[in-house]
Amino acid sequence: MNDDIAIKVENVSKKYCKTLKRSMLYGISDIGRNTLGLSSHSEKLRKDEFWAVDDVSFEVKKGEVLGIIGMNGSGKTTILKMLNGIFWPDKGKISIRGKTGALIAIGAGFHPMLTGRENIFVNGAVLGLTKKEIDEKLDDIIEFADIGDFIDSPVKFYSSGMFVRLGFSIAINIEPQVLLIDEVLAVGDLSFQNKSLRRLAELREKANAVVFVSHNLEHVRTLCDRVALLNKGKLNFIGDTYEEVQRYEELTRNIRLKNVRMNKRIGKHMYYSSGDIEFLEGGIMDESGNSTDEIFIEDDVIPFLRFHVNNPIENAKISVAVRSTHSVNCIWQYSNDKDRKKVYKLEQGEYLLKVRYKNPKLAPGIYTVAFSIRDQKTGEIYEKNIGYMPTFKVTGKAFERGIIYVESEWDVKKVDIIND
Question: What DSSP state is assigned to residue 5?
Fold first, then answer.
């Protein structure tokens, strides 16, 4: 490797088996073949096997923090375990320069019957430290973990938060040259999380490299120089942190949109029909008047509804709403009852209803529309449709936070208070 490269992953793949019984049989067979000097053909898939990581390559430079993001099951933790030497890749090569420290699972490597203090010595020895080196770091590890008298209690009595405190403290206080972290900062109270983030920032200056796996995109944006996006075991993209996080948010929006459409209902759903009106088609339109399922932040939102009136309606009150599928909250709802003199007399036949919300700047996300038609005078319902209409996606270069995207101006200054 070049001197400025701390980690190099070259065309690495790792396979798993879907069934335990077959996995054990394959394992025994592979050990036997390797013992006899025969190839186990690990590069080929057998029945019930699949690639958890498939032909992944990347490099991490010295002093760099690489974030790895992706949906559950995308292969993130498997890559970390291969980097740490827990698993061997079935194909490809991994090269690492420097001592590795890893925090991949809460309490991984802890013996439940040993005390926290004893586990520090066991973990330190596993990581290659001498007893003298562990003794020198022992007070710092105990102080950072901040678990009080429990340090001399068996770890089987520890809470998940205490586990992660002690494990994280060991991992970072051995001052590894390569640090591997998997979704552990989400555990523990705010004070410990902040202390861990400060320690990570310090370690970042000293370590050869850090590989950080997390679903917390705020941590990823703050800590990582670059981000690798995994999807179904494959490396989709690797590059600038903000660009890759936006790619990931777009990927998750597409998946949510697909899942919502498969379920065909959004949260609380209501559909009432008196038989006087029949819904034919609904959703949103683009500027050309065509039905679409994707618009951009800057676009107007144009809900439309085609319906057939079976029996004439004298005083129709029509309401149209836009809803978020994430929280099922109503964002806007408008109807013609604001001007009670303006009523719609619906004759028998087919109608097209179209409403334009001008420059609403919906934040990126998944949304749907809802319609209702009532009698303006009596309030009786002719048709009401919530949670059944097609969904649509809003995209754009903005983070998926909140519902409305707006530009802002900031002014932060110190204010001097003068006492009379």
Answer: E
Residue 127 inside a domain? The answer is no
* DSSP classification of residue 301: B
Range of the domain at 284: 270-395
Q: Dihedral of the CA atoms 307, 309, 313, 315 (nearest 10)? A: 10
Angle (CA) 162 167 168, round 5°: 100
Whether residue 280 is contained in a domain is answered as yes
Radius of gyration of the chain (CA): 29
Residue matched to tokens 């970072």: 172
Global confidence as pTM = 0.71
Q: Beta strands 178-182 and 209-213: pairing type?
A: parallel
CATH no. for residue 329?
A: 2.70.50.60
> Using 50, 70 and 90 to split pLDDT, how confident is the model at 336?
low
Mean pLDDT of 286-302: 90
Average pLDDT, integer, range 9-29 = 87
**How far is residue 22's CA from residue 196's CA, in Å, rounded to a whole number?**
41
Average pLDDT (145-155) is 88
Give 284-306 as a DSSP string: EE-TTS-EESEEETTSPBEEEEE
Whether 214 is in a domain gets the answer no
- DSSP per residue over 386-417, as a string? ES-SPEEEEE-SS-S-SSB-----------PP
Confidence of residue 94 (pLDDT cuts 50, 70, 90): very high
Please, what's the largest Cα pairwise distance for the chain?
A: 92
| Cα torsion through 136, 107, 153, 189, rounded to 10 | 90
Residue type at 229 in one-letter notation:
L
Give the residue-averaged pLDDT of 290-314: 89
With respect to residue 381, please indicate whether it lies within any of the assigned structural domains.
yes
**Tokens in use for 73?**
């099951």
- The domain tally of the chain equals 1
Question: What DSSP designation does 355 have?
Answer: -
